[in-house]
Amino acid sequence: MPTSLFIEHAANGLAFYLNGDLQFDTADEAIYHEHLVVPAIALGVQRFPDTPLRVLLCGGGDGLAARDVLRFPQVSEVALVDYSPEVLELGRTVFKPYNQGSLTGEPQSALGADRVSVYTQDAFAFVAALPDACFHVIICDFTYPTSLEDTQIYSREWFQQVARVLVNGGVMSTNGVSIEQRTLGFWCLYQTVRSAALDVKPMQLSIPSFQRHGYGDWGFFLASNVAIDRSELESLSVPASLKALSSDWIKAFQIRQAVADRRYAVPVNTLASPQLLYYLLNPGSLTELSESSEVTDFLAVQETELCLAETPNLLALDAIVQVWLEQLHQPTQPLLPADVLLPAQHRYHTPKMTEEGLGYSRSLLNQIEGDRLLAALLERAKELPPKLAQELRQLRENVRSGQPFTYVSEHTNELMIMLMVTLLMANTATPDAVFAKGSYSGSGSSYRSSDGDGSFGWLGFWTMVIGGMWLWNLSKRDDQ
Prior knowledge:
Elements: E1 5-10, E2 13-18, E3 21-25, H1 29-47, E4 53-59, H2 64-69, E5 75-82, H3 85-92, H4 96-99, E6 116-120, H5 123-128, E7 135-141, H6 156-165, E8 166-178, H7 183-194, E9 199-205, H8 208-212, E10 218-224, H9 230-234, E11 254-256, H10 257-260, H11 276-281, E12 295-297, H12 317-329, H13 338-341, H14 351-366, H15 370-378, H16 386-401, H17 410-429, E13 440-442, E14 445-447, H18 459-475
Parallel strand pairs: 4-5, 4-7, 5-6, 7-8
Antiparallel strand pairs: 1-2, 2-3, 8-10, 9-10, 11-12, 13-14
């Protein structure tokens, strides 16, 4: 989708938004960038004394992270790779007073920007083409992921590539997501970094501008292919000209225990089994968390548990159907949360919208005329497995006599659930079009009913039909 860039100017600075999300506010961006960059570079300097450091900066086209990398004279080379030429141009022009000319390449730059080489390229492809063990420090300064494609640079495969190009003892630092508003997403990232054989320490920071936008405390990860020890972090030497990294910065590794305990509840995010976007779209309720003030100091934690099991993508239709079927097979189990039964599919869906959607779904399903639906299915009885056709006939008799659904077979229940889920998901994707009628207007698209001058009124109908056929093939059994 097209990238939307917006700059909000203020008396003493500016705020930069990308696709509606705040990237930084010059009033407090130093909190973000100094905690992301300075500990990692300082640890690299300490681990590799008298060694010219090679640093890879992924993302960060605004030049602010590069500014803080270049504060260290021990850094001899910075490779910055960012896919957005528009952001890079802003980094060389509008943002120059704030990044101190880190991307301009001008010899007179106070930071010596001649040390920076800029590559306008996808970071994953760039890193995958690098030789092994070629960088001492890698900084990842990516934007908040809003699609499955975005989460690829937060996958296990990505962090494995990062680990591959780090020298032994090298350091990686990456921004995460909100540890308050997206707690399970934050721990999904944590477990994903760990799954790439990296020792990782999570950090939690309060950034006023992020708080004002409702993002909550933000999360970061400091990682290495060798263990990170408290004593070496306590002895780091940092530049004197910093604005936000105070002497007690190490407290950022202390996270409220009730929040820290949630880190075992999530699997890792992989390309084959993407999980992160689900947790970002469906963060779950944290109201049950203890109000205890006890904290977990992650510099004292030695992790042993790691969930590596392949978990289905709960944003996929077949996985949602499977959840419903599991509820059918275990009727004594309590109903799953709404965000599992009908998870949000788009970032603009709120928990309230999901709850309302379930209420609407119940109303929608109540409008289905079961007798007519069964009659339509039995018209195709010759194409159905004999056992299922007989069960559908029995179900029709049960419906006509008012007999409860609990008396019908498991196979028939499964079929009805799959049809219902397909109907609901089709309606979610194209509201009001499922029945090939009505009109809808949304962001960037609109259509009219089939008796008007448009043909998109059939989109939802065909979504349901195709989805139903696909699910039917998915559910076939040898004994039917």
